[in-house]
Amino acid sequence: MEYNFDELIDRTNTGSVKWSKPDVLPMWVADMDFKTVPEVTEALTRRASHGIFGYCETPPSFYDAITNWWKKRHALQVENDWIIATPGVMPALAAAVEALTSKGDKIIVQPPVYNHFFLTVKQSHCELVENNLLYDNGNYQIDFEDLEQKAADPAVKLLLFSNPHNPAGRVWTKEELQQIGEICIRHGVVVLSDEIHSDLVYDDFTHVPFTSLGEAYARNSITFSSPSKTFNLAGLQVAYFFTENEAFRKRVKEILTKWEMTMLNIFAIDSLIVSYEKGEHWLESLKRYLHENYCYLTDFCHVHLPELKVIPLQSTYLVWLDCTALGLPSSTITDRLLEHEHLWLNPGIKFGQAGDQFLRMNIACPRELLKEGLKRLEKEYKRIWNK
Ligand SMILES: Cc1ncc(COP(=O)(O)O)c(C=O)c1O
């Protein structure tokens, strides 16, 4: 079966967060303007027509679907009893922060990075420590020297790690992961590896699960993931984490239990099982389409916006654009885009100070919308540039 990712689907007046501003083309928050896997919609329709929505167990097939997925997609052996279901990656990360730290502890993040990492630390009893990525001519690397130095502080207890990285689009190599892992083990820093984007990795790159590096790394980490980015299910709120470290599992579960966050809704359960069991073919088509969108964008920028640097996209559908040449704060650019062109992008400052010369553009939309978005970006860019 082929899938029509070109189909324009009206999402206005559906309560969509992304489409919440009238008459604005939204290319910001990380969800897609595509219908999910047809089999998922069929399963949810069947569930809806049953008409009874009482409390629901998370069945063994939920855990089987996750273990099978990681085995076939990422060559990783996960055991069913290492997995805990949660209504989101961020609630699970927040619970892990609470479970594994005490007041005054410190947590490392690697900006520019997913903005909710900052919020999670801010809302906890911990202090934020920034290990900025190194940026050199369009390339992002880990600053290992700085990481080693910061991890050596005995108050540092956790690394919140985006693997692959949002918004830099990097897929970390095995060598990079090993180096991070060694530093963290050496200094007793637990790695919370957020692998929510691990399925959206393009050809030529391979996602390496942090926990696959070896026993010591596995015991010093927790992996968080979800089918939500992969299959566009974010509104269903389904996620999970796994670790073979029983003590970590127990402590995080205690926090989730304390906050009554251990039960999933029935649509969430069905959507995970069916997407992981039936969604592979759809996912491969999606990745091809997204990559073609990315190529369209790079060609367009090369011709029409040569001063704007497109950061190579190894993973995710979130393109990171270097606007240093404009010499304006990122929020000034996004405010102007919104006001003059009715185009909604994320300002890089959202992802930390290190992101302030950047914009983040979500290209998970039909090509027609991408083309329109790029035209609007070009218009405003030129308006600023020619001043
Ligand atoms: C790195 C990362 N982690 C977590 C999330 C959100 O996960 P959830 O909606 O399951 O809380 C996102 C969403 O964009 C993300 O990019």
UniProtKB/TrEMBL annotation:
GO terms for molecular function: cysteine-S-conjugate beta-lyase activity; pyridoxal phosphate binding; transaminase activity. InterPro entries: Aminotransferase_I/II_large, C-S_lyase_PatB-like, Class-II_PLP-Dep_Aminotrans, PyrdxlP-dep_Trfase, PyrdxlP-dep_Trfase_major, PyrdxlP-dep_Trfase_small. Its EC number is 4.4.1.13. It is an enzyme of class 4 (lyase). Its cofactor is pyridoxal 5'-phosphate. Residues 27-377 form the Aminotransferase class I/classII large domain. It holds the Pfam family Aminotran_1_2. Belongs to the class-II pyridoxal-phosphate-dependent aminotransferase family. MalY/PatB cystathionine beta-lyase subfamily. This is cysteine-S-conjugate beta-lyase. The lineage of its organism: Bacteria, Pseudomonadati, Bacteroidota, Sphingobacteriia, Sphingobacteriales.
